[in-house]
């Protein structure tokens, strides 16, 4: 999962920078911006947006169009050569930033190498930009994107630049989010695309709507042309509402904040407790909904060091463990001698939950009852969320043993019915594959095994 942004205005690079700051939570590994004013300008480095860019760097990124990216590595490694946007000079000069995972990456890579195309990184985005290059040599822009969609499997939202054009497109199932905004200043009509609506808000763009599954929009000369190219259904990732997106974002017309409130209200809880403690920050809204429903006071028992990044999107278990110790501290007076109801957005590997439960017990909690506002995650995600192997997923082994494994007195999970109701979309419009194993695209078993093996090697540093 990453964050992408594209703008077409007289202040594009600065708007791109501000938008990337707003969606920094979507990726902490690297950041990059590419702009065009007849000459391609690009800056990308490992690190956070604030560390990569300064006023001087932004002043060099001239042009009326820009695309940007913040990266969270799930395909490839966490080296600089995987940082985005990518640029390819042939046939016209193509810039591309992508959020998602291409599941047939290896097959496409071998196909391209058989045509003597050199692939310099392990990033699936580099394969995508080469496929786009091939299609652009044969077709106009829309037909080239359609041809690319027909060749690529998996999930993707993308922003792309060609000379004089800013382009956005979304995979045929709309798995990854992408929104479209517009604003008018004096004689200029400007457009922007972002992974989340907050990326539009900070720059004063009005949210028009989400791109449709299989849709492409081409911005040229202050006009936006839209075409539905390759729709196959709807399979929006439920994890955007549960965890990934900012609570002030709106995705598919549904407020993330309201969805999380409902996630808390929809929990069926049978234990007794004295205090509701959220795991900051994503579970805070759901804990409020739970607290209101059951009439149990909510308190801030865990304080987050805001200078530590999101632990879920860190690339290794060691870095996540260290970050949890540095990230959270306990307010002992809110914990000691109490039956604590600990609310978190999800339980994925269980390692973070175990550390937090231990912290609470070490600081005098009488009981710790864990609540997950997400149902049990039992299956790998092949579309861009960092939970690719079943052996890493604590609920895949045995849901009944989770409480014992993390040291809690009880664990209560959200139901799939409660999740769907909270989000407010139809069940068949959501990707629930990590919960029920029902993948919206066909992924051959050989491909699943290859993706799992590759990710395991990346985690251990064997490739």
Automatic annotation (TrEMBL):
<dbReference type="InterPro" id="IPR005854">
    <property type="entry name" value="PurF"/>
</dbReference>
<dbReference type="GO" id="GO:0004044">
    <property type="term" value="F:amidophosphoribosyltransferase activity"/>
</dbReference>
<feature type="binding site">
    <location>
        <position position="431"/>
    </location>
    <ligand>
        <name>[4Fe-4S] cluster</name>
    </ligand>
</feature>
<dbReference type="InterPro" id="IPR000836">
    <property type="entry name" value="PRTase_dom"/>
</dbReference>
<dbReference type="GO" id="GO:0006189">
    <property type="term" value="P:'de novo' IMP biosynthetic process"/>
</dbReference>
<keyword id="KW-0411">Iron-sulfur</keyword>
<feature type="binding site">
    <location>
        <position position="434"/>
    </location>
    <ligand>
        <name>[4Fe-4S] cluster</name>
    </ligand>
</feature>
<keyword id="KW-0032">Aminotransferase</keyword>
<comment type="similarity">
    <text>In the C-terminal section; belongs to the purine/pyrimidine phosphoribosyltransferase family.</text>
</comment>
<keyword id="KW-0808">Transferase</keyword>
<feature type="binding site">
    <location>
        <position position="345"/>
    </location>
    <ligand>
        <name>Mg(2+)</name>
    </ligand>
</feature>
<dbReference type="GO" id="GO:0009113">
    <property type="term" value="P:purine nucleobase biosynthetic process"/>
</dbReference>
<keyword id="KW-0460">Magnesium</keyword>
<dbReference type="GO" id="GO:0000287">
    <property type="term" value="F:magnesium ion binding"/>
</dbReference>
<feature type="binding site">
    <location>
        <position position="344"/>
    </location>
    <ligand>
        <name>Mg(2+)</name>
    </ligand>
</feature>
<dbReference type="InterPro" id="IPR035584">
    <property type="entry name" value="PurF_N"/>
</dbReference>
<feature type="domain" description="Glutamine amidotransferase type-2">
    <location>
        <begin position="2"/>
        <end position="222"/>
    </location>
</feature>
<dbReference type="Pfam" id="PF13537">
    <property type="entry name" value="GATase_7"/>
</dbReference>
<keyword id="KW-0328">Glycosyltransferase</keyword>
<dbReference type="InterPro" id="IPR029055">
    <property type="entry name" value="Ntn_hydrolases_N"/>
</dbReference>
<feature type="binding site">
    <location>
        <position position="237"/>
    </location>
    <ligand>
        <name>[4Fe-4S] cluster</name>
    </ligand>
</feature>
<comment type="pathway">
    <text>Purine metabolism; IMP biosynthesis via de novo pathway; N(1)-(5-phospho-D-ribosyl)glycinamide from 5-phospho-alpha-D-ribose 1-diphosphate: step 1/2.</text>
</comment>
<dbReference type="GO" id="GO:0008483">
    <property type="term" value="F:transaminase activity"/>
</dbReference>
<keyword id="KW-0479">Metal-binding</keyword>
<comment type="function">
    <text>Catalyzes the formation of phosphoribosylamine from phosphoribosylpyrophosphate (PRPP) and glutamine.</text>
</comment>
<feature type="active site" description="Nucleophile">
    <location>
        <position position="2"/>
    </location>
</feature>
<keyword id="KW-0315">Glutamine amidotransferase</keyword>
<dbReference type="InterPro" id="IPR029057">
    <property type="entry name" value="PRTase-like"/>
</dbReference>
<protein>
    <recommendedName>
        <fullName>Amidophosphoribosyltransferase</fullName>
        <ecNumber>2.4.2.14</ecNumber>
    </recommendedName>
</protein>
<feature type="binding site">
    <location>
        <position position="282"/>
    </location>
    <ligand>
        <name>Mg(2+)</name>
    </ligand>
</feature>
<keyword id="KW-0658">Purine biosynthesis</keyword>
<dbReference type="GO" id="GO:0051539">
    <property type="term" value="F:4 iron, 4 sulfur cluster binding"/>
</dbReference>
<feature type="binding site">
    <location>
        <position position="381"/>
    </location>
    <ligand>
        <name>[4Fe-4S] cluster</name>
    </ligand>
</feature>
<keyword id="KW-0004">4Fe-4S</keyword>
<keyword id="KW-0408">Iron</keyword>
<dbReference type="InterPro" id="IPR017932">
    <property type="entry name" value="GATase_2_dom"/>
</dbReference>
């Amino acid at each position: 999962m990453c964050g992408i942004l594209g703008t077409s205005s007289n202040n594009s690079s600065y708007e791109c920078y501000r938008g990337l700051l707003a969606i920094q939570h979507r990726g902490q590994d690297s950041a990059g911006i590419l702009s065009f004013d007849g000459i391609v300008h690009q800056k990308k480095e490992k690190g956070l947006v604030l560390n990569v860019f300064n006023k001087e760097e932004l002043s060099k990124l001239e042009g009326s169009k820009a695309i940007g990216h913040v990266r969270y590595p799930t395909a490839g490694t966490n080296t600089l050569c995987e940082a985005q946007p990518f640029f390819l000079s042939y046939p016209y000069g193509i810039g591309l930033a992508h959020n998602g995972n291409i599941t047939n990456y290896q097959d496409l890579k071998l196909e391209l190498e058989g045509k003597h195309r050199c692939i310099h990184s392990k990033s699936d985005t580099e394969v995508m930009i080469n496929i786009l290059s091939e299609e652009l040599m044969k077709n106009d822009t829309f037909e080239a994107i359609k041809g690319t969609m027909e060749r690529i499997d998996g999930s993707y939202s993308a922003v792309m630049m060609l000379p004089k054009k800013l382009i956005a497109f979304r995979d045929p199932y709309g798995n990854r989010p992408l929104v479209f905004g517009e604003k008018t200043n004096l004689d200029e009509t400007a457009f922007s695309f972002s992974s989340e609506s907050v990326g539009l808000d900070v720059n004063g763009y009005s949210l028009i709507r989400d791109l449709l599954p299989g849709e492409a929009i081409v911005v040229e000369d202050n006009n936006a042309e839209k075409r539905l190219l390759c729709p196959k259904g709807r399979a929006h990732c439920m994890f955007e509402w549960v965890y990934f997106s900012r609570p002030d974002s709106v995705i598919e017309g549904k407020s993330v904040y309201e969805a999380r409130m409902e996630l808390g209200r929809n929990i069926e809880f049978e234990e007794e407790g004295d205090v509701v403690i959220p795991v900051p920050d994503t579970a805070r809204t759901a804990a409020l909904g739970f607290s209101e429903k059951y009439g149990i006071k909510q308190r801030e028992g865990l304080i987050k060091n805001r200078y530590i990044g999101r632990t879920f999107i860190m690339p290794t278990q060691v870095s996540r463990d260290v970050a949890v110790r540095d990230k959270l501290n306990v307010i002992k007076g809110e914990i000691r001698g109490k039956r604590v109801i600990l609310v978190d957005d999800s339980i994925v590997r269980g390692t973070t939950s175990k550390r937090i439960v231990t912290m609470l017990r070490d600081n005098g909690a009488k009981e710790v009852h864990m609540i997950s506002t997400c149902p049990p995650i039992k299956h790998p995600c092949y579309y861009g969320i960092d939970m690719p192997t079943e052996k890493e997923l604590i609920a895949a082994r045995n849901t009944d043993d989770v409480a014992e494994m993390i040291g809690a007195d009880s664990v209560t999970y959200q139901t799939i019915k409660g999740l769907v109701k909270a989000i407010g979309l139809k069940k068949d419009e959501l990707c629930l594959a990590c919960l029920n194993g029902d993948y919206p695209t066909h992924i051959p078993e050989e491909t699943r095994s290859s993706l799992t093996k590759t990710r395991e090697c990346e985690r251990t540093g064997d490739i």
